Amino acid sequence: MKHYLDFEKPIVELQRKLEELKKHPETHSLGISFEEEAAQIEKKIEETRRMIFSNLTPWQRVQLARHPKRPYTLDYLQTTFTDFSELHGDRLYSDDRAIVGGLARLGDHKVVVIGTQKGHDTKENILRNFGSAHPEGYRKALRLMRLADKFGLPIIALIDTAGAYPGIGAEERHIAEAIAVNLREMMLFEIPILAVVVGEGGSGGALGIGVADRVLILENAYYSVISPEGCAAILWRDRAAAAKAAEALKITAKDLHDLGLVDEIIPEPLGGAHNDPAAIAQTLKQHLLKHLKQLHKLSTAERLKRRYDKYRSYGHYLEQPAAA
Q1: C-alpha–C-alpha distance, residues 156 and 106, integer Å
Q2: Where in the chain are the domains?
């Protein structure tokens, strides 16, 4: 395991012990055969993995969501989808590489897929701006969504971003306005819309392509108004309190589902999506096809009404009556 997280160390140590035993089988314990000792270690690895990953804290899930080996949008476009044809540019300023999109097939369905894209190494991360889109990225997404609406193609959005880019250039080109227009327009499109949080779902950067009839989330992904580090810096004046913030924010898939903010949790392979990319790609495909089939059964009017009611139901508050 080339990259592992702190809480995975017990698993890594056992795997190293097994590798060492296989390299030097003569070192096996007395009174037990090499095959028996190797089988015992493999069983212990499996038990340890199950114990660790069945008791993850919110902060540990955030770390998994950020794992550099986790599949990203372009990975899913090669596995979950077929016949992907990428479309570039917003026809206003430039082509933002942090958001990719285009035409594809999902099973027998022709769809438009849009997603935020990170990089698997430093060079690609710089090219993709670490998955943080500029205004032109959201305007490109809107152009593709309008194309989908025009030709009656369902929209599928794959979300994995820490947030929209907060730089001066993005502010000069009106990042907030670009996201706000997407929120408004996505509420009105007449075709089915599915959104899936596959990794990080950070603030308005995620919402900019996240208004949908159904919002799904991978088991170890998170969706939040602010990153745990940002929250910790504001509330505790210390980014080291990120684990405490992650707990308080209720940003895990289970918390979000319990609160009614996501419609379904997509299970991941044991150890996270990066442990078996082929398996998570097929699982994602099955869930998307299921929800797409359900949405196609609804009339346009009913689908729009349900979408409107869905977002109107978010957030509850009580008004204090004015004192007499």
Answers
A1: 10
A2: 7-55, 62-311
Q: What is the third-level CATH fold of 62-311?
A: 2-enoyl-CoA Hydratase; Chain A, domain 1 (3.90.226)
Residues in contact with 272: Cβ distance below 8 Å, sequence separation at least 6, in sequence order: 53, 64, 67, 70, 220
Nearest of 319, 197, 318, 213 to residue 255 by alpha carbon: 197
For residue 173, the model assigns a pLDDT of 95
Q: What is the pLDDT of residue 1?
A: 44
User: pLDDT under 50 in the chain at which residues?
Assistant: 1
Whether residue 228 contacts residue 273, with contact meaning beta carbons closer than 8 Å, is answered with no
Q: Give yes or no for a contact between 231 and 239, defined as CB atoms under 8 angstroms apart.
A: no
Burial of residue 80 (number of CB atoms within 10 Å: 0-12, 13-18, 19+): buried
The per-residue pLDDT for 268 is 94
Report which secondary-structure segment, H or E, holds 228. helix 228-235
The dihedrals phi and psi of 119, each to the nearest 5 degrees, come to -115, 150
